[in-house]
Amino acid sequence: MSTPNTPESLDSERERTRTGMSKAALKQDFLDNLFYIQGRFLEVATPHDLYMAAAFTTRDRLLERWVKSAQLFKSSHARTVCYLSAEYLLGPHLASNLVNLGITENAREVSEELKLDLDSIIEEEEEPGLGNGGLGRLAACFMESLSTCEVPAIGYGIRYEFGIFDQAIEDGWQVEKTDNWLRNGNPWEIPRPKICFPVGYGGHTESYRDERGQMRQRWQPELEINGVAYDTPILGYGTENVNLLRLWKAEASESFDFQAFNTGDYYGAVYAKIEAETISKVLYPNDEPEIGKELRLKQQYFFVSCSMQDMIRLHQNTVGPLESFADKFVAQLNDTHPALAVVELMRLLLDAHGMSWDQAWGITHRTFCYTNHTLLPEALETWSVNLFERLLPRHLEIIYEINRRFLDEVRVHFLGDEARIWRMSLIAEGDERRVRMANLAVVGSQAVNGVAELHSKLVKATLFKDFAELWPGRFHNVTNGVTPRRFMVVANPRLAQLITKTCGHEDWIRDLERLRELEAHVDEAGLQEQWLTVKRAAKQDLAAWMKQATGVQLDPESLFDVQAKRFHEYKRQHLKVLHIIRCYQRIKQGLSQDLVPRAFIFGGKAAPGYFMAKLMIKLINAVGAVINNDPHVNGWIRVAFMPDFNVKNGQRLYPAADLSEQISLAGKEASGTGNMKFSMNGALTIGTLDGANVEIREAVGEDNFFLFGMTAEEALQRQMTGYRPWEHYQSDAKLKSDIDLINSGLFSHGDTQIFRPLTDNLVNHDPFMVLADYRAYLDCQKTVSETYKDTQRWTRMSILNVARIGHFSSDRAIRDYAEHIWKITPKPIEPAAG
Ligand code: CRA
């Protein structure tokens, strides 16, 4: 029966074209988007035009679900998680959205029909790198899992115009290139010019009498800028739920412009605009705080102020009275970067909504939860009181008042313990008084958590010991997780297919514990063989990419030994280098019998101002240049440095790794998440008892994990009793000869000085105890090599790693938060009828 050609039927036809999942609908919408948005037809379309059309076609399908989610959440007054994070390291959207919509295969077939290659269209996407590393990527995994777990959520953050720099390697050194990710437009975001909030800076506070005759304080900022919302839909896997990622862009407010124009100050007006827009211009490329950087504090305040104003607006538009604000919202502070939100919510409730202190504090304190991500003292944020006073005078007053009331509570609880009051105060006294953001976050939150069991234990025992004694029930652990959609299905489709085939279903993708069903097949020769084939294919892909990107030829038959993460001394990339040099020396001495051929692969960025981390990168490349050009050793070892390690490049790396290096000094890595990504892709881990390694080892079984090194406790003990690295250097001839080889100039064209800062530091200070763990590490690497020689055994271990890694899905982490921290229940969106 043919459909009558009425306006209604045309409308529904169009709707199907824009939302349908059939190949016909996808194809039509793709061609329409190419024509109507890009103004192109197929024959002349550039790869970028094709990518944009594919992205819009995918986005069309997200929007319908998004609107439905928003409607349901609004009408049902659903409790909502607001995730506050200064970073979201999202990675490319297209492939992940196709998987979550379940249309990858259809998209591939449509591409083929149009004589296009889906993989190259996907390659075109420039990823939004709005984060530095683990913390930002965690936020992105959590957003995806919040949708998958059907928890209503809004992610709030900053729409940086320049994300994390692109890394190039020139003459072995890291060179930073600006990341102009918005250059060609961003098809995933929707600007909301009407969702716009004023944000003040500077000025002064004043007292006044309100209409009831009560004395109140208010802030008269000197400068006001606007924050404009840019929304990105975040789809879950196999669900209709779409959550919202709302990032704020800073713009000059019109009133400011007018003022300057009216006084004839054209330059001043334009300058003001530039100055305002600077606030969301660039991500600070450091995973530690930038001490005293005024712009950074401005950024933090900018995004939390917009977010708090937005939450209040949403609440008033739906539920109504602010008394129930903390029932409607729970706000998660992703580290201390958004901790000012506590103070901003207080200010809004007190000054803009006329609440009493007790009422405002009751709401604020019930709204917030705080996740701590590091114990490193240099990463704990503090801001000078002077800077605060100048930039946020009203907030400083509120902090003082929070502190006054809090310290009264401490005094009553710990009678006469002045030292404790000193330590717990929100203000650090000293030559320069400073606001302690971590203490503010703990005091302002109803729940505090660390990101792995060991880390959470150390948080309670060291960093927040005083607080844990005061409020023991406030402290929790939620071990991190990563999304298996991106890091298995998107990154490693061959493995995903093999798992699906072996288990006989795809349910493991949303219930990762079901990977356990692989265990029943672990001894089947057929599975083992296919497992190896999948791994080999991934290694071949990576080898081809590496060859093209760096010129280094890797042998896919060799063991791919990978360390990929930010460069930091505590992560001990230099320990890995010492191992490489040891292998090199052994082969040169004709002692290669206990080795296996290995490709040593590194990836990672260093903070631009972190001299030692940059020197480690140079050292790796220098050692690599000598080894890769020495025909003597070429059948045995190669060294490759993957430039620009980011989400996209990570996805190339994880599937190809045989061995995952997780070798930080125990007690220093809060969790790590790369460790989980490698393991999910069948790499075996060599690691210390640090961060989530501890739990990964428990999960996969100690026989399937290469453990070495001191425990956190032992490391601390040795530090306290006086650690003398030079004794290791003097007494271990091999270690000495490895370090001496660096100093000999062999890797630096005879320059004996260039690596001295690094080697001298190791021998004389060694703050991360590389030398203390050197021997244990080498011994353990020997076991790795022996194990690798037994292919069947290795493959078995690899399968077991994947089978038992289910716990480290970010879905599990989100369910933990939902149940224990947020007290929130899922809100599924019903699929459309028909
Ligand atoms: N640098 C930790 O160091 C952890 C992530 C996410 C870090 C990692 O061990 O996996 O957070 N800490 O929880 C951090 O950013 C400010 O502290 C990280 O990414």
UniProtKB/TrEMBL annotation:
Its cofactor is pyridoxal 5'-phosphate. It comes from the Bacteria. Belongs to the glycogen phosphorylase family. Pfam families: Phosphorylase. One of its GO terms (biological process) is glycogen catabolic process. The modification N6-(pyridoxal phosphate)lysine is found at residue 677. NCBIfam families: P_ylase (TIGR02093). Its EC number is 2.4.1.1. GO terms for molecular function: glycogen phosphorylase activity; pyridoxal phosphate binding. It comes from Allochromatium palmeri. SUPFAM superfamilies: UDP-Glycosyltransferase/glycogen phosphorylase (SSF53756). Residues 1-20 are annotated as: Disordered. PROSITE patterns: PHOSPHORYLASE (PS00102). Signal peptide: none annotated. Gene3D superfamilies: Glycogen Phosphorylase B. This is Alpha-1,4 glucan phosphorylase. GO terms for cellular component: cytoplasm.
